[in-house]
Amino acid sequence: MASLTATFYGLPGTLLFLAATALSVTIILIWISLERTTDTQNLDIEDALALAAPTAAEEEKRAVLRALKDLEYERSVGKISEEDYREVSSHYRAQAKQLIQAADESLKKKREFAEVRLKKLIHKNQPSPTADDDSSSSEEIK
Amino acid sequence: MWLSLPGFGTLIVLSILVLAAYTFSTAIRATNGQVRLLNSARLGAYATAALILCGVLMLAYGFVTHDFRIRYISRYSDRSMSPSYLFAALWGGQDGSLLWWTLLLGGYTAAVVKWLGHRYRQLQPIIIATLMAIIAFFAILMIFAANPFEQNLAGAPPDGEGLNPLLQNYWMIIHPPMLYMGFVGCAIPFAFSIAALITGRLDNEWIIAVRKWMLIAFLFLSIGNVLGMIWAYEELGWGGFWAWDPVENAACLPWFTAAAYVHSTMIQERRNMMKIWNVFLICTTFFLTIFGTFLTRSGVIASVHSFAKSDIGIYFIYFMGLILATSLGLIVWRIPKLKAKTEVESIASREAMFVINNWALLGMATFVSIATIFPKISEWLFDQEITVGPPFYNKWAAPLGLIIFALMGLAPLFGWKKTSKKALRTAFTFPLICTLIVTILQAIFGEYLGVPSIVPTESVESGFGAEVYAKVSSLFPGLTVSLASFNLSVVLQEFYRGVKARRSSTKKKGEQEDYFTALIRLIGKSRRRYGGYIVHLGIASMYLGFVGTAWSVTEEIALNPGESREVAGYQLSYQGTRMCPGNPRCSPEEQATKGRRMLFADLEITKDGKSLGRLSPAKFIYMSPPQTTSEVGLLRGLNADLYTVLATADPKTKRATFSIHINPFVSWIWIGLSVLIIGCFVSLWPEVREKRSTSWIYLRATASGAVGILVTFYFATSLAQPFGSSVERHFEKTCSEPGCELEEGWFDHQSASSADRMPGVVKNPHQRLSGWRS
């Protein structure tokens, strides 16, 4: 009895308790993990949004914008001359413009598709729309 | 069988492998984009981490309850050990350290999975799969070669063999976990790069995420390496902190490549260049961590760390082969996507400086790795094992180190893409003036202050080239001080220019900021940039500490009780010896010490007539395992450390010989580490504006982490001196009482036989300076 008390008291007891907790957590997590593999529920909104990963053009655009910000800093601390700043800055701006256009182009189809879906959804929620209402709502979407 | 602790522990190790394999396969299935499978794999990763934690806690339980049925516990602990050293024994030997490594990897995996959240959905499955594969490797290693729960075949012994006294040191409680944190942390960037290579998402976004994780690994590698230096400095007793031991070298190799990566990644971010190089650096850094572990564990190269020697080297060779084949194969496959569309336009640009800096850092890593394995290379090529010693390393590492130091100061002065002559002139004026002033001052006053610019160096080789090199290398101390002042002035200038620019910009907006507010807001707005500059300050401080060895003084002195001797301005007055526990002059802590006897030789220190206190270098005689160690008496100072080692003591006459070292600027290494830690935390400080709802959680967590590490470091530096001031209070009588007498012959017996009785521990090459061990 004394040895059993000693086992569950003080530092050894704490370690044993923590180990048991870790093991319980492991079992619960495995259980949920196995359940998820057969889960057929729809995605929640966060998961669905996360699937829309940024395109390579978008990421390149971010890098150019970061470079522009850095360039501004370098000009402000006098690390780059005004002449060099104008040259490099115009180069980056042109690159950013191109990338923004490319990103817009690549998203054009998806945007149109989304607009159509939205339009349909609005129609569905408004059972008796007038022609004027319809045109104004599609204007809003645009 | 499973009801016993060894059996249950083994079952846990087996389960880790099974669970890692399950998570790996689920993650691979999730690559088809199924979110439910990815979520399942994420939970599997958490479960694996929790199971590893359970295993470590069970082993810790075995240690504190002295369950000597487990072979590992009986080999690395005994009943006299305090709980803190019982915990240190978890990683004090081979098998336990592998489990500890796996725990840290599990912790990193859980942290990265939590951090990823909904980000990098495409990369996540491969990241998890890669990390699980690494965990599975360590589980296989434990199951087949180094099971920490393996049962003692002959049954449980009444007591264990005890932890190696060399490891019974405060620093050894925190040094290995920190170093492992650094080593294991390199697995995260590796997993990211493998995921990016496989999925083809080789754009610049993932590299930003990887930089943070690499910076965390870099931080812990820095802490681990410097703590290792402190341990060697205080415990090995040869007067230095770095001996180019193979295991020391192995620990610093990934540091070089990680440092190279945190700079080159900026080129990819800004200029969309060097993608192949960055992926190569990430893979190389991870490879070097495994290579370092292989060197430590396999015993292929002789080292003072040979206590960790075992037969698991072959497993590491296979694993290294797998890493090399996978990394190189994927890089070659993705070369068309990795090729840069832009190139370095001018040598007067920051990217050009970073490229040169990268080559210098990689050159250093290559030099150190080749020199480390040179004994094996020479054996294969010439059938003769040729070992290269510290003079060889110092000869070549010094110029490379100075190149890196110079580039560290130069790079911030250049702008991206190209820098005009006018801008360069403006940027260089202040740092060059400062450097010139310091160089002239050192040339004039250096000799008087004991830090001359030129320190004559003797050539270790013969020939004209060697003579010329020796002459050139005599300039290195002065050059290092000049470069330190250059680096310091560059950083100060960068802060000043930033504050000035910020104040003028806020003034235009109609606001007025004072200098301090502008400085804080400037750092807050560009944390990465200014955190990096703070890290540069820390490294410059460390360089000062390193160069201090050029002016160090070493003397061997023999004294009778009551005699005095002056060494480099310090007056050392020998008071006699005392054996603790037992002597009435021992402090209560010393009287209460169990498991060892301690012979102290007390030295009263004065300088310029002012008392600086008492130092008590000692010899500790351990009962289990039977072994003697030297404990240094150390008086720290910003200018220099007074470092004393008790070499011998005559039991009859009490005449003692000491090895006295005056080590200038060593404290600046430890100060440099503190500055480096602060700089890394500034760089890693999270963006609080992105998510207002959770920002305070991140802030609190980061602040707690930063404070925790700094406080630990402070405690460690203040508590690691157990035999300095505490002795002073209790040492008031002269050594004339019966308890003070030495037992005749004990010292000769102990010092002569202890080294030979030490199985597995290789003697330090600096043995001649301070007894068998140091």
Provide tags for this entry.
heterodimer; A: 142 residues; mainly alpha; 6 helices; flat; disordered C terminus; B: 774 residues; alpha+beta; Four Helix Bundle (Hemerythrin (Met), subunit A); six-stranded antiparallel β-sheet; four-stranded antiparallel β-sheet; 25 helices
Describe this structure in words.
The complex is a heterodimer of chains A (142) and B (774). Chain A has helices at residues 2-7, 10-37, 45-50, 56-76, 82-125, 131-141. Chain A is mainly α and 142 residues long. Chain A has 2 domains: 2-36; 55-141, no CATH class. In chain B, strands 2, 3, 4, 5, 6 and 7 form a 6-stranded antiparallel beta sheet that branches. A 4-stranded antiparallel beta sheet of chain B has the order 1-10-9-8, with no helix packed on it. In chain B, a hairpin with a 2-residue loop joins strand 4 and strand 5 (610-615). By secondary structure, chain B is α+β, with helices and mostly antiparallel strands. Among the domains of chain B are: 1-163, Four Helix Bundle (Hemerythrin (Met), subunit A), CATH 1.20.120; 175-187 and 200-307 and 330-381 and 393-402, no CATH class; 551-668 and 724-769, no CATH class. Chain B has helices at 5-29, 35-64, 71-76, 83-88, 94-116, 124-144, 170-185, 187-199, 205-236, 246-271, 275-298, 313-333, 335-338, 350-382, 390-410, 421-449, 464-473, 476-508, 515-525, 527-547, 588-591, 667-684, 692-719, 725-730, 746-753; strands at 553-559, 564-567, 570-580, 596-607, 610-615, 618-622, 627-631, 633-635, 640-649, 656-664. The radius of gyration of chain B is 28 Å and the shape is globular. In chain B, helix 1 runs antiparallel to helix 2 (35-64), helix 1 packs antiparallel against helix 6 and helix 11 packs antiparallel against helix 12 (313-333). Chain B is built from 25 helices and 10 strands. Chains A and B meet through helix 2, helix 3, helix 4 and helix 5 of A and helix 1, helix 2, helix 10, helix 16 and helix 18 of B.
